[in-house]
Every structure is written in structure tokens, then in C-alpha cells.
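JOB MANIFEST
job_type = single_chain_structure
chain_count = 1
residues = 91
[input]
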Amino acid sequence: MDAANIVVIIVALIGALGTIISNIVSNNKHANEMDAKLDKQQAITETKLDALTNEVKKHNNFAEEIPTIKADIKNIEKRIDKLESKIDRAG
């Protein structure tokens, strides 16, 4: 092997090493960008989930109040019936 061949091999190795290093740097940059995007999406998802959770809680509270409201309406109807009966007897 003469000096020219050794120089060619060294230049090829340097070129390959440069390619490998640039790929590593590029991949790291891309990975960091993806991590930032994923963090942003995660924050958005968590915010939306919190909002939906609050809506479900409101709905559940309303659903829990319905039986009480129905009972109140029934009592009001009974009182109205009693008042109507009194008016009919008085009139």
C-alpha cells in the first residue's frame, strides 16, 4: 500500500466520520423539536381533559339535583291541590 492509497483511505474515513457526526447532530435536533411538540400537545390535551372533567362534574351535579327538584315539584303540586280544594269549598 502506497501513500496515495493511505491518503484516500484517511480522506474516506474523515468523510464518513463527518457524515456520522452530522447525522447525529441532525437527529438530536429533530428529537428535541419532537419533544417540544409532544410537550405542547400534552399540555393542550391535559387542558382539554380538565375542561371536560369540569363539564362532567357540572352535569353530574345537575343530574343529582333532578330527584330533589322532582320531589319539590310534587310537594308544590300537592299544596296547589289543597289550596284549590279550600277555594272550592269556600266558594
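[summary]
The chain is about 95% helix and 0% strand.
The first helix runs from residue 3 to 90.
exit_status = 0
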